[in-house]
Amino acid sequence: MQALDMAGHLIRRLHQHSTQVYTARTREAGFDITSVQFAALDAIKANPGIDQAGVAALIAYDRPTIGEVINRLVSKGLVERAINDADRRARVLRLTPLGEETFARLLPIVREAQNAILGNLAPDERTAFMALARSAIPAE
Fold this sequence. Notes:
Elements: H1 7-28, H2 35-46, H3 52-59, H4 63-75, E1 79-83, E2 91-95, H5 97-117, H6 123-136
Antiparallel strand pairs: 1-2
């Protein structure tokens, strides 16, 4: 069996390509936001008041990693933490005004990068790929 016949190898190669395209496009536009940081911003934007565990679950990252991601977003002034009124031990997350602005400016660049990642596929192939990729992820 050759590497190009192995799903794991192809997935790794596609991940490398995806990371390279995302990083190049966002840096060219003057942003220093990793793809994981963007995913966290997206989750917080869609779910204001979510906690770190909720972000971790939504974007499929472990809690310690998300803790560091959130710390970086807070230090960049993009996310704020507040005490949860329902559970004073917990912290809720929201985008700051700078976070909202950054997300709005970054979103079209990320969308364009997604098109570039699958740029070798025809539109119907992209649709099929996305459906197959979603189906291949095991339910948790």
